[in-house]
Write a structure and sequence with these properties.
This protein is α/β, with parallel strands linked by helices and about 220 residues long. Helix content is about 45%, strand content about 15%. It contains 10 helices and 8 strands. It has an 8-stranded parallel β-barrel, surrounded by 7 helices. Strand 5, helix 7 and strand 6 form a beta-alpha-beta unit. Helix 7 packs across helix 8. It is globular and about 45 Å long. The two termini are about 15 Å apart.
Length: about 220
């Protein structure tokens, strides 16, 4: 798979606590000529990313209840509405892991479904945190995401959480084409990406696109 085909499967992200507006602007300028599926930014930077990526075909991806998931449904809905109103094309939605572990499945479902409804057809991904869950819990989370109408499950948020190929394989072997899987968390090299694709991942997320695409000197073109 060449780097351009690989890029069409990629969300590249610039989401850190110290990310500035000029960082987002520079990142979008650098990568908007490259055919990535999406560029992910924190919620506050959606309007800037939308302006920078206008006409490129690259989706603006943002985050809801990110990265911990412990928000009320009403807060998540407000975040989702703001994202829609300001031009987000996709939303990565953290599940409430504590609620899932407690067995409060209806609560997890209700929160995800509320965001799907606000998204009104835009792509939504449930971030299910496979690094924190057992294989069985990951399948429960995926089933809830499917029933809520999520288009993807995203394995992890990053922030030190590492996705293994078996996390992806566990979901795809059980649910097949019923839902797409985005591998995220520790996806920092092309070799790692190919392991995830071979395990069944439909897309991947990375914060180190130069390493993944094998670009020399950090050049995007």
């Amino acid at each position: 798979m060449n780097k351009f085909k690989l890029a069409r499967l990629a969300d590249i992200s610039i989401i850190e606590m110290d990310t500035t507006a000029s960082d987002v602007e520079d990142f979008c300028k650098k990568w908007r000529e490259y055919p990535c599926a999406g560029i992910a930014v924190d919620l506050a930077y959606v309007p800037l990313a939308q302006e920078m990526l206008k006409g490129t075909g690259i989706h603006v991806v943002t985050t809801i209840a990110y990265p911990l998931g412990g928000m009320t449904k009403e807060t998540m809905m407000r975040q989702a509405r703001w994202a829609v109103e300001n031009g987000a094309d996709e939303m990565d939605v953290s599940i409430d892991v504590g609620a899932l572990i407690d067995g409060r499945y209806d609560e997890v479902y209700d929160k995800l479904k509320s965001v799907v409804d606000v998204a009104a057809g835009r792509i939504t991904k449930a971030v299910i945190y496979t690094a924190k869950l057992s294989p069985e819990q990951s399948l429960i989370a995926t089933d809830i995401a499917i029933r809520a109408g999520m288009r993807f499950v995203k394995t992890n948020s990053g922030f030190g959480l590492i996705t293994e190929p078996e996390h992806v394989r566990n979901i795809k072997d059980t649910f097949g084409h019923r839902i797409k899987v985005m591998a995220a968390g520790g996806i920092r090299t092309q070799e790692r990406v190919m392991q995830m694709i071979q395990a069944g991942a439909d897309r991947f997320a990375t914060s180190t696109p130069c390493k993944v695409f094998g670009l020399v000197g950090g050049e995007a073109k």
